[in-house]
Amino acid sequence: MRGRDHRSRVAQTGSALVEFALVVPLFFLIIFGLIEFGLIFAGYCSAAYASQLAVRYAIVRGGDQVFVAPCATSDITALVAPYLWAAQQNSYTVTTTWSPNNNAGSTVTVAISLTYKTGIPYSGLNTIKVGASSKGTILF
Fold first, then answer.
1. What is the DSSP letter of 76?
2. Helix crossing, 2-60 with 73-80: angle to 10°?
3. Does the pTM exceed 0.70?
4. Strand, helix or coil at 95?
């Protein structure tokens, strides 16, 4: 009788090891997928915040002011660079458009696009593009 119980425990230990070997890769895939998704979402959030700041900067500094130099595309690009902390270096574009010009009453749109390089091997998703845009009316 004792021999039979011993064989049963060894068989259960072996089945637990097989189940563990099947579940662990799936567990790590889910964990690393959540981390990767979090980094991509952080890139989107930083682009959205930076575009909001850029539009606020542009609507306060329109082109027809007397005491302040008019806002230009280079000013906006320099303004948003520190806020794109989640973007990899030189992997973003900032597009600023004024409609019809940069005087009071015109509309300014700032669009930011980030290219994120994923760390997931063999997935086919080497790069993912995320972006955000904001729009406002120039006040001054």
1. H
2. 150
3. yes
4. strand
